[in-house]
Design goal:
82% of the residues lie in helices and 0% in strands. By secondary structure, the protein is mostly helical. It has a single domain, classed as MetI-like fold.
Length: 203
C-alpha cells in the first residue's frame, strides 16, 4: 500500500467549514428555540420545519442549494447549517420548557422582564442541553461535509472522491482517516465538557 499523505490544508478547510456552519446554526437555532417557546402556535411550525430539513437526504439538499447559491464552500456551509438546526433548536426549546415553574416565578418576583428572565435564568439553565445539541451538530457536520466535493466545495471530501475515481486506496484513506479522527476527537472533548457542566450543575 502506498504511503498515506494527509493534506493538512484540507483538514483545516474542512474544520473551518463545519465550525462556521455550526456557529451560524447556533445563533439561528437558539433564536428559533426561544421563539418556539415564547409562541406556542409557532412552535409546531418551527419544529416541523427543522424536522423536515433533517430527513431530506444530504445530497438532495446540497443539490437544491447548489442550484440556488451556486458551487463552493458557501453552499456547503448553508447546507450544514440547515442540518444543524434540528438538534440545536429542539434542545433549546426542550431545555427552556423543562425549567421548573417555581424558578420562573422567583425571577418574576425579582422584577425581571421577559428578556432578562431569558438571558439570566432560562438560557443558562438550558445551556447543558443546548450544548448537547451543538455537539451532535458538530459531529454530524464533520461527516456530511465530505459530500461537499460534489458541489464544488473544499475539505476532506476531495481526496476521498478522487481516490474512488482512481481506485487509489491511500488517497481515499488520506481523507477518510482525518474525518474519523476529527469526529471522534470532537465527540470525546465535547462529551468531557458536558460532564464538567453537569458536575457544576449538580448540588
Amino acid at each position: 500500500m502506498k504511503a498515506i499523505n494527509i493534506n493538512f490544508l484540507l483538514v483545516y478547510e474542512h474544520l473551518i467549514i463545519v465550525l462556521v456552519a455550526t456557529v451560524i446554526a447556533v445563533f439561528v437555532g437558539v433564536f428559533l428555540g426561544v421563539l418556539a417557546y415564547w409562541h406556542k402556535l409557532a412552535s409546531k411550525v418551527i419544529i416541523w420545519v427543522v424536522d423536515t430539513v433533517q430527513i431530506i437526504p444530504s445530497l438532495a439538499l446540497l443539490s437544491i442549494l447548489m442550484i440556488i447559491f451556486g458551487l463552493g464552500n458557501q453552499t456547503l456551509i448553508i447546507g450544514l447549517g440547515l442540518y444543524s438546526l434540528l438538534p440545536i433548536t429542539r434542545n433549546t426549546y426542550t431545555g427552556i420548557l423543562g425549567i421548573e415553574p417555581s424558578i420562573r416565578e422567583a425571577s418574576k418576583g425579582m422584577g425581571m422582564t421577559r428578556l432578562q428572565q431569558l438571558l439570566k435564568v432560562e438560557l443558562p439553565l438550558a445551556f447543558p442541553l443546548i450544548f448537547s445539541g451543538i455537539k451532535v451538530a458538530v459531529v454530524t457536520g464533520l461527516g456530511i461535509a465530505v459530500m461537499g466535493v460534489l458541489i464544488g466545495a473544499g475539505g476532506l471530501g476531495y481526496p476521498i472522491y478522487r481516490g474512488i475515481q482512481t481506485r487509489n486506496t491511500a488517497l481515499i484513506m488520506s481523507g477518510a482517516i482525518p474525518v474519523v479522527l476529527l469526529a471522534l476527537g470532537f465527540d470525546y472533548i465535547m462529551t468531557k465538557i458536558e460532564s464538567l457542566i453537569a458536575k457544576r450543575r449538580s448540588p
